[in-house]
Amino acid sequence: MHLDHGVTFPHRHSHSADPLRGDGTRRALRVGLGGPVGSGKTATVAALCRALRAELSMAVVTNDIYTREDAEFLLREAVLPPERISAVETGACPHTAIRDDISANLEAVEELEETAGPLDLILVESGGDNLTATFSRGLVDAQIFVIDVAGGDDIPRKGGPGVTTADLLVVNKTDLAPYVGSDLDRMARDAAEQRGDLPVAFQSLRAPEGVAPVAAWVRERLAAWSVR
């Protein structure tokens, strides 16, 4: 194996879902959140719900392999009414249900639109996966990939589809950088080299600013979606 050879990744399900529902009305913007186990996806979803729920009609779909733990966390935190949180038990590798066989997630999304709608935004959280995790464009309209500094400051340099192609890369838990030896400047440089013009947000949910940069990005996507 020659490590100096470039690696290309297949593009799967690149066809985007129709922005209009069967009755001609515009459906909710769907934003997927993926990333490794423990990177802070569920905490980011909870923070986004708190930041946006007063101005947007929104709902959440969570994915776990055999449990509904992430959905139960969101329910305990009361980030949204219970009828706006749906759990999918994938029964297999998390990326299967968000990329390869998206039927269970599509059913959950469409049911939320019917029962809790009209909705502006649906967040679809993947179960914990690795750097290859990506969402089908038939499921979501935009993708956020969450990594954290405790996983190592070399993660952006390692790349992978999640890091290099997500519409937004979130580097989470920046408050831990001094304690785990992660160099945030290095992570920023490596992320920029891997991603080009695609945006990167650094966040600590414990800081006063919290999820604000990610919430601002979601608002921008929603504004563009409304005139698409």
Could you give a short description of this structure?
This protein has helices at 41-52, 69-77, 94-100, 103-116, 155-158, 161-165, 177-180, 184-195, 212-226, and strands at residues 29-34, 58-64, 85-89, 121-125, 142-148, 168-172, 200-202.
Keywords for this structure?
228 residues; disordered N terminus; alpha/beta
SSE layout and pairings?
Layout: E1 29-34, H1 41-52, E2 58-64, H2 69-77, E3 85-89, H3 94-100, H4 103-116, E4 121-125, E5 142-148, H5 155-158, H6 161-165, E6 168-172, H7 177-180, H8 184-195, E7 200-202, H9 212-226
Parallel strand pairs: 1-4, 1-5, 2-3, 2-4, 5-6, 6-7
Structural class: alpha/beta
Segments where pLDDT lies below 50 for 5+ residues?
A: 1-14
Major sheet strand order: 3-2-4-1-5-6-7
pLDDT averaged residue by residue:
88
Describe the structure.
There is one protein chain. The protein is of the alpha/beta class. The protein has helices spanning 41-52, 69-77, 94-100, 103-116, 155-158, 161-165, 177-180, 184-195, 212-226, and strands spanning 29-34, 58-64, 85-89, 121-125, 142-148, 168-172, 200-202. Strands 3-2-4-1-5-6-7 form a seven-stranded parallel beta sheet, sandwiched between helices. The N and C termini lie far apart (45 Å).
